[in-house]
Inverse folding.
């Protein structure tokens, strides 16, 4: 409790200890804060360096991601161009197909009944015969290749054959005109007929 003498208030001894203790606590807190600040200031360059290393590593990873994204964008652009080419080709093919359908649809409509009648009229033997004929086509082609050059010369041989037929007719007339030829011809025919009769 504070004492008062002649109107002057004297400080209480207990309260002086309290003030001293508070002052000491303030000094300790200040000293602790100063130490913590000094330690923080001492560790700050290392932390900043570690932070910069982390930022550098992060930038490398970001650059890698950006490069990968650029590659993906390039591939998407290529795929898009390819898809556009496919769509363009499909569109052209569709236009061509529609034109063919428009061209051949009337023909198909007219020929469908005939084709149906033809298919219905075929029996198994005719189909087998057609297959056998197709199987013979390679040999037929080989024979035709041998015959075609001969056929090509017929236009030059035709006059000669015509002349030969004329000569043959003349010889026949001459032989028929021989006296007694009819007798010899009949006799020869009788001999041929006798040879044809089996024993």
């Amino acid at each position: 409790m504070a004492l008062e003498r002649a109107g002057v208030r004297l400080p209480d001894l207990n309260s002086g200890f309290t003030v001293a203790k508070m002052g000491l606590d303030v000094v300790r807190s200040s000293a602790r804060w100063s130490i913590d600040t000094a330690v923080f200031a001492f560790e700050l360059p290392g932390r900043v360096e570690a932070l910069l290393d982390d930022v550098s590593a992060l930038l490398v990873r970001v650059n890698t991601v950006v490069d990968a994204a650029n590659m993906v964008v390039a591939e998407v652009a290529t795929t898009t161009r390819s898809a556009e080419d496919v769509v363009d080709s499909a569109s052209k093919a569709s236009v061509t197909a529609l034109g063919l359908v428009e061209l051949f649809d009337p023909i198909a409509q007219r020929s469908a009944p005939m084709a149906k009648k033809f298919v219905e009229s075929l029996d198994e033997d005719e189909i087998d015969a057609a297959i056998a004929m197709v199987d013979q086509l390679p040999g037929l082609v080989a024979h035709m290749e041998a015959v075609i050059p001969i056929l090509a010369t017929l236009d030059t041989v035709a006059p000669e054959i015509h002349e030969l037929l004329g000569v043959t007719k003349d010889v026949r007339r001459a032989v028929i005109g021989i006296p007694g030829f009819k007798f010899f011809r009949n006799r020869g025919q009788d001999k041929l007929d006798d040879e044809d009769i089996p024993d």
